[in-house]
Amino acid sequence: MCGIIGVYNSRNATIGMQAQLESARDLLQHRGPDDRGLWVDPQGACMLGHRRLSIIDLSAAGHQPMCNEDETIWLVYNGEVYNFPELCAELQALGHHFRSQTDTEVIVHGYEEYGVDIISRLRGMFAFALYDCRRQQLLLARDRVGIKPLYYTAGGDAFLFASEIKSLLAMPGVEKQLDEQALHEYLAFGKVYAPRTMFRGIIKLPAAHYMLIKRSGETAMQRYWSPYQRRFPLAPASNENEYREALFGLLQESVRLRMRSDVPVGVFLSGGVDSTANVALMSRVHGSKVHTFTAGFQGQEAYDERSHARAAAQHFKTEHHEVEITPRHLLEVLPELAFYLDEPVADATTIPIYFVSQLARRNGAIVILNGDGSDELFCGYDKYMQYLRLQPYWRGFNSLPRFIKTAVAQASQRMGVNGAAGEILARASHEIELYVGATGALKGTPAFQEFVNGKAEVYRAVAEGRQQFEAERRSTDYCEWLSYWGLRSEVEHVFLYRADRMGMANSIEIRVPFLDHHLVEFALQMPQPLKYKNGEKKYILKQALSGLVPDEFLYRKKQGFCVPLREWAGSMMHDKIFEVLPRLQSDWGGLSTEFLEAVHARLRATEEEGFLSWNLYTLATWYERWFD
Predict the structure, then answer these.
(1) DSSP states of 27-57
(2) Quick check: 88 and 107 in contact, CB under 8 A?
(3) pLDDT at position 65 over 80
(4) Which of 102, 300, 381, 569 is the most core-located residue (most Cβ within 10 A)?
């Protein structure tokens, strides 16, 4: 795991930017504390910078930027290619000579052999930039599900890229401006979808894409993978046992590959099905004690999973480590998060992930496995089941003319109709998919409806988000659609984002076995009854793990990584919201005075607006950190 940065200038004018680029590179020191490097193109067209966290081949042979033998191809790379030994053997058989044991060098020689097609051969998580001196072109690429980040911006003759936004903001000529459309997206979804970011002109390379930047200034972006690819021969008529056996084989292979490391490997453990499955499979593959890590909250049993984690650790005989988060710890770390996150993310789970990552690093674990992605792929959320049950009713009401739907929805709102019925009516009247991940913009948090100067901007953001993902829809299977939406929305833009930033804040690499692209493709083609059967969520996953993971963990009620924000920091968060958001309104507009007054009254009157408080607090601390 590393941090990368670079600049490409069609007028060969990068040499004068060396000092600024080195300074911006070192803002990524938390991503790569072990080494740093810089390559300057003798022609002045390109500079590449790198910060290294050593994982594979800890020697100086892994130094980056890395080149081929004749120094015509230069690479900076962040991530892990898990199938690098197999690719190395393949390339050696074709006559390529390796000077290291790194996965980095596989990309260099793979590009020599296959060009951009090497990207589709990589199995892992990655974001890289490769400069081809002969063609005088720059190649950027990002992994299939968006585990590793990559941002870019262009102005004049210069094209700049980096692992984190903060490094781009430190470069000359990059203006710090709020993207108001991104603000509306954040209010609607609690996140900002690629390619947009909260900073106008700074763009996030979408997952599963590569981009070519040529000397002429021409750019070309290409998507190289879709989770709808059908790699596996199982047909819908295949029996349950075949799916169960195939799924177990893919899980075991994914964990085995992600344990390839020259530094200690551990795992986050909550005692739920996903993290316990990782522990069980790691114990099976590794043959020695696994190091497990858990966080809990002092005096807050409702938010604490340590007892379940201890039970799992005892069963699998792990070396178990715990950290207890106190109110003081929480209040101390909250201001730091804006620096590491770069953008606001309406998910308070960033807090325990930060502390458990810190715990892992203190105990010598540099690589960590977690359970992200399983709930989305195998329909593990109660809300998924609710939407599946509501779908037939929604279809019926949605088939009516829009003026009828609107009239009924407005009447029901005046009558105070809430819950599932209110959800169906509200979404159908706006002709929005029943599940688009933006409940708060329509119903769930009334204050959000007044957030902008008129609701049109928020609704437009919701509509654009829906259109973006529905354009990619390939199936009428609603369960598959929920999995796909969850993968492309929550997983890519929240779960993986927070894991990368909080892990890298503590210089650890977080790997996600459930998001191996072979496993993703397999899960999406799986029939709905295997994911949700007889009222049981994640049915086929639990069947695949039966006998390896005890029932007490497989069938334990889902708790989630919750945080006692209201109890510990409610007053402090409210004070920050009321201090900063008026300045945002004064500087940029977009927030109505009526909204600010409504939020003030609502937050002072009730303690039950936890999501709203965190969402706005995160926005306020982000704005204060980057614009004040």
Answers:
(1) GGGGG-BSEEEEEE-TTSSEEEEEEE---S-
(2) no
(3) yes
(4) 102
Compute the distance between CA of residue 249 and CA of residue 555 in angstroms, rounded to an integer.
21
Identify which has the larger pLDDT, 399 or 606.
399
- As a CATH number, domain 2-223 is 3.60.20.10
Cis amide linkage into residue 65, ω under 30° from 0: yes
Q: Which helix (H) or strand (E) holds 623?
A: helix 610-627
Where is 38: in which H helix or E strand?
Answer: strand 35-40
> Can you give 320-365 as a three-state secondary structure string?
EEEEEECHHHHHHHHHHHHHHHCCCCCCCCHHHHHHHHHHHHHCCC
Percentage of residues in the chain with pLDDT exceeding 70? 87
Taking a C-beta distance cutoff of 8 angstroms, is the pair 370, 275 a contact? yes
Asked whether the predicted pLDDT for residue 71 surpasses 90, the reply is: yes
- How crowded is residue 268: how many other Cβ atoms within 10 Å of its Cβ? 28
Q: Judge if the upstream peptide bond of residue 513 is cis by omega within 30 degrees of 0.
A: no
Query: Strand 209-214's sheet: what is its strand order?
Result: 66-67, 73-81, 124-132, 137-142, 209-214, 219-223
| CB neighbourhood size of 126 (10 A) | 22
Q: How far is CA 88 from CA 58, 93, 236, in A?
A: 18, 9, 36
Cβ atoms of 268 and 308 closer than 8 Å: no
Cα separation, 182 vs 611, in Å, equals 19
- At 191 the three-state DSSP class reads coil
**pLDDT tens profile 346-392:** 888 999 999 999 999 999 999 999 999 999 999 888 888 877 777 77
CATH 3.40.50.620: which residues of the chain? 240-378+494-554
Which residue reads 């779908």 in tokens?
391
Q: How far is Cα 472 from Cα 212, in angstroms, rounded to an integer?
A: 23
Query: Taking Cα atoms as reference points, which of 579, 583, 621 lies closest to residue 600?
Result: 579
Active-site residues, by number, are 2
Q: How do beta strands 265-268 and 291-297 pair?
A: parallel
Q: Token pair of 190, please? A: 């609690």
CA distance 310 to 435: 36
- pTM of the predicted model as reported, rounded to 2 decimal places: 0.93
Which tokens is 372 given? 């992200």
Portions of the chain given CATH number 3.60.20.10: 2-223
